UniProtKB/TrEMBL annotation:
Residues 1-25 form the signal peptide. Pathway: Carbohydrate metabolism; hexose metabolism. It is found in: Cytoplasm. Belongs to the aldose epimerase family. It catalyses: alpha-D-glucose = beta-D-glucose. The active site is at H208 (proton donor), E342 (proton acceptor). This is Aldose 1-epimerase. InterPro entries: Aldose_1-epimerase (IPR015443), Aldose_1/G6P_1-epimerase (IPR008183), Gal_mutarotase_sf_dom (IPR011013), Galactose_mutarotase-like (IPR047215), GH-type_carb-bd (IPR014718). One of its GO terms (biological process) is galactose catabolic process via UDP-galactose, Leloir pathway. It comes from Kolteria novifilia. Beta-D-galactose binds at N107, R108, H208, S209, Y210, D278. CDD domains: galactose_mutarotase_like. GO terms for cellular component: cytoplasm.
Length: 377
């Protein structure tokens, strides 16, 4: 009798242990309607949560992060990214790539031109005289992506997929992309990028959230402390196209190698074409290892955000062109009320032979990862 019940309980424990990973796997988030585009395409939203109270809302237009609620040390949540309440907001002039997946080639391409395998290509010059963030009406931030939600034992996520047809926005090749967002149980928002092509083509995808760790709609990020793991940056001409040189940050207002308050030296940059920080940093790292690029801290809430990436660069942009547009909950977003840390290959790489290449060839798979890791100190 004793042996039987012992056997039974052993079997039960073994079954429970086997079932544990399944029992603890998060559910896949459900799609909710989020209106439609002006052309009548339905947009869906997915809400990801984790056990620490974090919430991330993602929409299929532009594979965009629309809300990101992050706890401070006391557990108070704030939505730390800029965004809009509806699709019309995202389609408005006020949308400066808020939270979007950006490409096919993020950042600038000089005069919207490049030559690949002997052929010249022309792209939209939507940031006169240059091409910016993939161009016109069919850039990746504007198209509606397919979505596949999932749950794992380490969090919830959504994989967005989109195949950009050959010639779309002037780029060669059918480019099949997958962008996977995962909100993990340890407060990482992880983004994994994958792409393949049937013709050689430039690819440089990034994520364009505007962060304010006090909460979106707070008046400034000038009080945030920033560390950038970069001894060098790519100096530019007056249209923000790199000269091709890599220059030391040491002795300039661009030096964030030690945690530094954003306001400390920004005044030295206001009369430059960038109007503040809008610079690509060359990260201190080898090859495509996943490494720390930046750490941001908001002294008022104590919230921190570390940025890790497989990319060679990060664009640090202090929202110098924000224009008081009204975002979520009718809150205005004035100049410098948020900042971007866009992990990427260097701007204009397609025209700069000494920069790491952005060319993807048939048979190769483009893979990059960016992690925004939240905490409090
Ligand atoms: C660029 C800025 C630009 C902003 C919004 C950033 O990635 O570096 O110059 O104004 O995106 O388009």
């Amino acid at each position: 009798m004793l042996t039987e019940s012992w056997l039974l309980s052993t079997v039960l424990v073994a079954l429970l242990l086997l079932a544990a990973p399944i029992a603890f796997a998060a559910e896949a988030p459900k799609a909710e309607p989020f209106g439609e585009t002006a052309d009548g395409v339905a947009v869906s939203e997915y809400t990801l949560t984790n056990p620490n109270g974090m919430v991330a809302k993602l929409i299929t237009r532009g594979a965009t992060l629309r809300e990101l609620h992050v706890p401070d040390a006391k557990g108070n949540l704030a939505d730390v990214v800029l965004g809009f309440d509806d699709v019309a907001g995202y389609e408005s002039e006020g949308n400066q790539y808020f939270g979007t997946t950006t490409g096919r080639v993020a950042n600038r391409v000089a005069k919207g031109k490049f030559t690949l395998n002997g052929k010249e290509y022309s792209l939209a010059t939507n940031n006169d005289p240059n091409h910016l963030h993939g161009g016109g009406p069919r850039s990746l931030d504007k198209v509606v992506w397919n979505a596949e939600p999932f749950g794992t034992d380490n969090g919830q996520g959504v994989t967005f997929t989109y195949t950009s047809p050959d010639g779309e926005e002037g780029y060669p090749g059918n480019l099949a992309m997958a962008v996977t967002y995962t909100l993990t149980n340890n407060n990482d928002l992880r983004i994994d990028y994958k792409a393949t092509t049937d013709q050689a083509t430039p690819v440089n995808l990034t994520h364009h959230s505007y962060f304010n760790l006090s909460g979106a709609g707070s008046s400034t990020v000038l009080d945030h402390e920033l560390m950038l793991n970069a001894d060098r940056y790519t100096p530019t001409d007056e249209t923000l196209i790199p000269t091709g040189k890599l220059a030391p940050v040491s002795g300039t207002p661009l030096d964030f190698t030690k945690p530094t308050v954003v306001s400390e030296r920004i005044d030295e940059l206001v009369s430059t074409p960038a109007l503040g920080y809008d610079h690509n940093y060359v990260l201190n790292k080898k090859g495509d290892e996943l490494a720390l690029a930046a750490k941001l801290r908001d002294p008022s809430s104590g919230r921190t955000m570390s940025v890790l990436t497989t990319e060679p660069g990060v664009q640090f942009y202090t929202g110098n062109f924000l224009m008081d547009q009204k975002g979520k909950g009718g809150k205005a977003y004035p100049k410098r009320s948020a900042l971007c840390l866009e992990t990427q290959h260097f701007p204009d790489s397609v025209n700069q032979p000494t920069f790491p290449s952005v060319i993807l060839n048939p048979g190769q798979t483009y893979r990059q990862t960016c992690i925004y890791r939240f905490g409090s100190e």
